[in-house]
Amino acid sequence: MDPVARVDSKMPSHTNGFHVPDAVKDNGKYDPTFTKRVIEAIGPKTSPRFREIMTSLIQHVHDFARETELTVDEWAAGVNLINWAGQMSTDRRNEGQLLCDVIGLESLVDEITYKKAAEADDVATQSAILGPFFRLGTPQMKMGSNISQDTPADAQPVYMFGRVVDAKTQKPVCDAEIDVWEASTNGLYEQQDPDQKEFNLRGKFKTGPDGEYSFYCIRPTPYPVPDDGPAGQVLQMLDRHPYRPAHIHLIVLREGYKPVTTQIFDAESKYLEDDSVFAVKDSLVVTFVPREGDPQAKLELNYDIALKPNA
Amino acid sequence: MDPVARVDSKMPSHTNGFHVPDAVKDNGKYDPTFTKRVIEAIGPKTSPRFREIMTSLIQHVHDFARETELTVDEWAAGVNLINWAGQMSTDRRNEGQLLCDVIGLESLVDEITYKKAAEADDVATQSAILGPFFRLGTPQMKMGSNISQDTPADAQPVYMFGRVVDAKTQKPVCDAEIDVWEASTNGLYEQQDPDQKEFNLRGKFKTGPDGEYSFYCIRPTPYPVPDDGPAGQVLQMLDRHPYRPAHIHLIVLREGYKPVTTQIFDAESKYLEDDSVFAVKDSLVVTFVPREGDPQAKLELNYDIALKPNA
C-alpha cells in the first residue's frame, strides 16, 4: 500500500548508463522517487532499444515539467495542441511532423542519423530533413523532362543537371533513382493547392551508365510553412516568422548505397540564416547561373550527388 | 550565409538560469551550436513564461534525441503515434492526455500545481489527476440521491457521505460544489458505453450551511485504460498492464477556496501499487465499511474534504 517504498526497494533503475545529472533529476521540491517509479514500471519484456528511448524520454519530460514548474493548465494546453495536430493531419498534411520541425527536432534527428551512417573517409552529399510534403508515387519521367506541368508567369525556368557518383571512387552510379519535388511560386506544393495538377513539380528519374541526370524545373522561392494550425500558433507565440528559404527536395536511392534525403538551397534566397525549420547546411547551398542558347530556361544548376556505399 | 557563426556571435542564450549541464547538452558528436540556435530564434515579443517553457522543452527534447541517438525512422514513428492520438480524440476521448498519463506526466504536473498552491500550515485534501473521462454539464442532484441510474447486478451499492470543511478552521463550508464520477463495473464510463444512460454514475451536489454531503454510488472496481490506441500501444511496448486501481473522481469547488481535483482509492483494490497512470497517493486511499440498517447499501464511506482558503 506504499508504492513509493515498494519501488524504492528494488532500485537500481534501468537508466542504461545514461548520464542523468542529479541536480536536474530532482530539484528537491517534488517527490524524488516519482520519475524512478515510472521508469521502473517498464516491464522485463520491453525491447532494449524501446527501454532506452522511453527511459530517456520519461526522464527528460519529467525534468522539463519540474524545471519549468509546469502547471496542469499549461500541460492541458499542450495536450490540446498535440491533439489538434493529429486532427489536422491527413495524407496531404503532417502537422505532427511540422510541430517537430519548428523546434528543430527533425533537423536534429537527421543530423544524428546521418552522422551514425557516416564513415570518416569519404564525403557523401549531406542530408536534410524530408519535410512534411513528400509524396509516394511520383511518376517516373524521361531525362530532360520538365517537372513543371503548368509554369506560372512569375516562375524562372531552370535546367538542373549533374551526375550521381560513388563517394569513394567518384565513378558514375547507374540505376540511381532521383525523386525531386518543389513548391510553386505561390509557396504551395501541389497537394496543398487545388489549382496545381496532380504531381506538378514532382518527378522521378533513373540514371544510366553515365550516372547523369537532367530535368527542367523552376527556380524555388521562399514560402511560409502552413501557419493555420498548432505549428503556426507555436511560431507566433515564439515571435518567429514561418518562412523557409528557397529549396528543392531530393531523395536519391540506389541498391548498395546509403539513401540520401536532402534539400538544396538557393544561395540568393532570403531566410538562409533563419529557416523556420532549421534545415540549412552550408554544403547544401547552391548557385543558379545563367544558361545560354536554351529557349526553355535562362538559368541552370549543375549539381552532383555523391552516394556512400554500404559498408 | 553561415547561420552558425551568426547566431554564435549573439550569445548568451535565453536559458533563464536553468541548470543545463554541459555533459548532456553536448556530447561532442553533434553540432554544439544547434540547440542554442533554435532557442536563440525565439523572438523578443514572446511572453516570458512561454519563452521559459519552450527554452526548457527544446533543450530537453534535443538532449533526449542526442542521448538516445534517435534516428529519423524512430522519430517518424513517434510523430505517427502523436498524430494517431489526435485523430482518436473526440469530445468523449482524450488520447493525447492518456498518452501523457501513462508516462506519469499528468500526475507530475498535478503534484507541481498542488505544491505551488500549497501553504505549509494547513493540510488540504490532496489532489490527483483529472483523467480523460471528466465531462462538463453533469446534472445537479439532491443530497442523498443515487448517482447510479441503473445499477448492474455485480455492483456493490455504497452510501458515501462527509463534510466539506475549511482546511484552516475545520469549520463547515457551505455552497461547495462537489462533482463526482466513476466507471461502472464493466470498467467503462458512461460516455464510453452505449449501454449506460447519459451521465450515469455522475452527480453534482451543493453543500448547505452544515457543509455536509451524501449520495449513493457503487463501490468502484479496477479497469484498464482504453488500450486500442497509441497509449495502449506504448503500454504494450513497455510491457506494462493498462489497469487502474478502483477509484472515485471528485472535483470540489467553492468561491474563496482553492479548487480540489482528486481521486479516492479503495484500500482493498488491486493495482494500488502499480496504477497504470501513477495517480495513487497514500492520503487518498480510503476504506469502505459495512453499513447497518440501510436497504439501499450494505457499505458506506465517510470522507471529509478540506478546502484551502485563497490567500
Describe this protein's structure.
The structure is a homodimer of 311-residue chains. The termini of chain A are far apart. The radius of gyration of chain A is 24 Å and the shape is globular. By secondary structure, chain A is α/β, with parallel strands linked by helices. In chain A, β7 (247-253) and β8 (260-266) form a beta hairpin. The first copy, chain A, has 8 helices and 12 strands. In chain A, the strands form 3 sheets. In chain A, strands 1, 4, 10, 11 and 12 form a 5-stranded mixed beta sheet that branches. In chain A, α3 runs antiparallel to α4. Chain A has 2 domains: 3-69, no CATH class; 100-307, Sandwich (Protocatechuate 3,4-Dioxygenase, subunit A), CATH 2.60.130. The first copy, chain A, has helices spanning 3-8, 22-25, 34-40, 48-68, 72-88, 95-102, 105-117, 230-237, and strands spanning 157-166, 177-181, 202-206, 212-218, 223-224, 243-244, 247-253, 260-266, 285-286, 289-290, 299-302, 305-307. Chains A and B meet through α1, α3, α4, α5 and α6 of A and α3, α4, α5, α6 and α7 of B.
Considering the chains and any ligands shown, give keywords for the structure.
homodimer; about 300 residues; alpha/beta; Protocatechuate 3,4-Dioxygenase, subunit A; 2 domains; five-stranded mixed beta sheet; 8 helices; globular; disordered N terminus
